[in-house]
Amino acid sequence: MKTIIDNLNWRYATKKFDSSKKVSQENLETLLEVLRLTPSSYGLQPYKFLIIENPEVREKLKEKSWGQTQITDASHLIVLCSYIDVNETHIDAHITNTASTRGMEVENLKGYSDFMKNTISQLDTERKQIWNSKQAYIALGQLLHACATMKIDATPMEGYDPAGYDEVLGLKEKNLHASVVCPIGYRSEEDATQHFAKVRKSKEDLIEFI
Amino acid sequence: MKTIIDNLNWRYATKKFDSSKKVSQENLETLLEVLRLTPSSYGLQPYKFLIIENPEVREKLKEKSWGQTQITDASHLIVLCSYIDVNETHIDAHITNTASTRGMEVENLKGYSDFMKNTISQLDTERKQIWNSKQAYIALGQLLHACATMKIDATPMEGYDPAGYDEVLGLKEKNLHASVVCPIGYRSEEDATQHFAKVRKSKEDLIEFI
Lengths: 210, 210
What we know:
Two copies of one chain form a homodimer.
Chain A: H1 2-10, H2 25-37, E1 47-52, H3 55-63, H4 70-73, E2 76-83, H5 88-102, H6 110-121, H7 125-149, E3 153-154, H8 162-169, E4 176-185, H9 203-206, E5 207-209
Antiparallel strand pairs in A: 1-2, 2-4, 3-4
């Protein structure tokens, strides 16, 4: 399992991408499937992943990201959006999907459906948005790991203006919110940060056995 | 890259673990290193990972987890805790670690330190706790992916009483909060859910190209 650790040590938050290098369609498909297979609370997948290729849209998003060049230079920009509100419609769709995937009757899933509906009805919109956003972060973690395995560079970014992203991408009217952003591609040889030693807490500081 | 997808399809939220099967020390060390290498906002790693082995503590935690048997039957129980408050002490420690890891002078990192301190000073405690908690979810995503690669079963769980966990583990006085829980180990042959088809949204529902 040394490979896993070597891969995770290889990765770093890329500051400068080589804009001439593109992630192949095959590799992109793998990463999208990694995102799709990510587990989420109740399996609701309360998110949507936007893959931004359009250069003009990326220019606009760069302006909403304090001018950080990864937004435009990376091969692809992934915006991990989560739903603002998760409601009975989402649960009904999930139940329909479960029934169809597993060859069951929707009626037999009523107890599970009612349980989920009861749970979410107790959350206000802000709490739902936080909950949904956390699920998107699980997807981010899986994505970063898969990128490292595939030697694709990735930079998780929270440094952007979410309201600006909403505006450029028209997210609010789709009940979506930009939870976290991740450009992917290949590091530029000129990016000096790739040579910096990785800074992490010691095992002793971070992990406790009970 | 078919292997990655095969591995992620192999994994599922294990309902019943085989309590006789233990994750080896070597594999556990790999998973802990995966957690340690997880990227986080500003590299602050605002979390701590508790590995619960003690059977009595696990019995108590099961009571705070609606009696779900994974808590006691799994090989190891990982409680991903995040800091409630993140403050200047954390940033100073991070700066000291950065300077020492990279052979730099602390003084040369003052601009970066001030920037981080200014950012967190604008967040109230609730927003900091949410921010910290999201970082723990990145670690969860990486952990789940690594477990799948290593054919170790894992069950991400939000269905527990966080206040009860705080109480049993004395988290609050350590400025910690149980963000998410993940028992790891090996599936029981008796767990029927392992044979259920995986339910996920279609690529068309989940992903949009722009």
